[in-house]
Design goal:
The structure is a homodimer. Chain A is an alpha/beta fold and about 170 residues long. The first copy, chain A, has 2 domains: about 5-15 and about 65-174, 3-Layer(aba) Sandwich (Rossmann fold), CATH 3.40.50; about 15-55, no CATH class. Helix content of chain A is about 35%, strand content about 20%. Chain A has 7 helices and 8 strands. Chain A has helices at about 15-25, 35, 40-45, 50-55, 70-80, 95-110, 165-174; strands at about 5, 15, 65-70, 85-90, 115-120, 130-135, 145-150, 160-165. In chain A, the strands form 2 sheets. In chain A, strands 5-4-1-6-7-8 form a 6-stranded parallel beta sheet. In chain A, strands 2-3 form a two-stranded antiparallel ribbon. In chain A, helix 5 (about 70-80) runs parallel beside helix 7 (about 165-174). The first copy, chain A, is globular. The interface of A and B includes residues 93, 118 and 127 of A. Chains A, B: It comes from Chitinophaga terrae. Chains A, B: GO terms for molecular function: 5'-nucleotidase activity. Chains A, B: Belongs to the 5'(3')-deoxyribonucleotidase family. Chains A, B: InterPro entries: 5'(3')-deoxyribonucleotidase, HAD-like_sf, HAD_sf. Chains A, B: This is 5'(3')-deoxyribonucleotidase.
Chain lengths: ~170, ~170
């Protein structure tokens, strides 16, 4: 059975939507899809607000109730029957997220076991046959087949097969 | 530079000493080295107390102030110069331990970065050139060179090069 490592943030969970909402709450400013095209949220906020974004991400509870990407639950449930599935998140930059991520996975992906979770600092330690991730840097040391999960911040990244959404993942992998 | 994945519990940190102390506090009973030879603490307590041991391990704070194995700090500091070093702990069974382990590493191994931590459910996802671990099961899917870190519970395990203590690790790896 092939193994598959699936990222959390901006792949199955949506921290950026929540960070944008908090930013709107605090500064009354939102960003259009055009402004975010090819960029991260930290790229588009004024430089003096970048630490504020980090502060959001390290607030206990921030990651506990994130929205799930459309169809992620259903497709992961099926992938879990066909692959040795692991959820791998480079989560250590935000230690307050560790327990939140555990609890979020327990609640929203109850068909996965805690044996399938991996919270690391850097994904260069991960081995699997397939990796689905929205960040090119996570493929740096990866020896399996990478799929870049599409997001506004990675539209200019080339050289990877892309997964547009979880419906697309189902077509490619199920 | 070769990479090296180093386990936490019963390799650099001593949760069993603390669990034995708590068990003595609660039941007034301790165990001799002879009783523990070839066995885990859960093996030697009465079967009805096994859940109590799990309860200790899932108490918030339990992992926060564990004793460090002799010479582990000094030797890891040197290994960190020679290898890409990662601390890898199969920690997910005890989610209350996640933050404690992060904080413990930050305090007692300040020369390591959070980028070098990995808290997982199962080590089959880990790739490295070398792994040091006290549990044979963590080598099951490992493609690098395993070193079994010696402990009373693994004395009957054969087939692996053994590291007796951190002084011995220094001799073998530095």
């Amino acid at each position: 059975m092939l193994s598959i490592a699936i990222d959390m943030d901006e792949t199955i969970a949506d921290p950026i939507k929540k960070a944008r909402e908090w930013y709107f709450r605090d500064y009354g400013r939102t960003f259009t899809p055009e402004e975010l095209h090819g960029k991260t949220l930290s790229d588009v906020v004024p430089p003096e607000h970048r630490d504020k974004i980090k502060e959001y991400l390290n607030t206990p509870g921030f990651f506990r109730d994130l929205e799930i990407f459309p169809n992620a639950q259903e497709v992961l449930k099926e992938l879990n029957k066909k692959y040795k599935l692991y959820i791998v998140s480079a989560a250590m930059e935000f230690p307050a997220s560790l327990r939140d991520k555990f609890d979020w996975l327990q609640e929203f992906f109850p068909f996965l076991s805690w044996r399938q979770y991996c919270l690391c600092g850097d994904k260069s330690i991960v081995q699997a046959d397939i990796m689905i991730d929205d960040l090119e840097r996570n493929f740096a040391n990866f020896k399996g087949k990478p799929y870049l999960y599409h997001g506004h911040h990675n539209v200019h990244v080339t050289g990877y097969e892309r997964i547009l959404n979880w419906e697309d993942a189902a077509k490619k992998l199920l």
